[in-house]
């Protein structure tokens, strides 16, 4: 799915997908201008410290705002 994301897309890593948030080559897997995020609570629940994330971390409220604003959601 990362390979087909378009420049205007936002990708939010949740559950075990947050492992991508610590993947050093994550930016090479997506096109420029694709916005990458990870759900903060899921990130911390898997034993990571916030400082280890290579993408911005979102609260549930921030995640909900993205879902409300985007015309299409792929899960």
From TrEMBL:
<dbReference type="GO" id="GO:0002143">
    <property type="term" value="P:tRNA wobble position uridine thiolation"/>
</dbReference>
<dbReference type="InterPro" id="IPR007215">
    <property type="entry name" value="Sulphur_relay_TusB/DsrH"/>
</dbReference>
<dbReference type="GO" id="GO:0016740">
    <property type="term" value="F:transferase activity"/>
</dbReference>
<dbReference type="Pfam" id="PF04077">
    <property type="entry name" value="DsrH"/>
</dbReference>
<dbReference type="InterPro" id="IPR027396">
    <property type="entry name" value="DsrEFH-like"/>
</dbReference>
<protein>
    <submittedName>
        <fullName>Sulfurtransferase complex subunit TusB</fullName>
    </submittedName>
</protein>
<dbReference type="GO" id="GO:1990228">
    <property type="term" value="C:sulfurtransferase complex"/>
</dbReference>
<keyword id="KW-0808">Transferase</keyword>
């Amino acid at each position: 799915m990362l390979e087909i994301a378009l420049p205007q897309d936002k990708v939010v890593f949740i559950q075990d997908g947050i492992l991508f948030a610590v993947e050093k080559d994550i930016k090479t897997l997506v096109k420029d201008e694709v916005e990458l995020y990870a759900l903060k609570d899921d990130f911390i629940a898997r034993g990571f410290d916030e400082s280890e994330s290579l993408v911005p971390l979102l609260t549930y409220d921030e995640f909900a705002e993205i879902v409300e604003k985007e015309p299409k959601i792929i899960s």
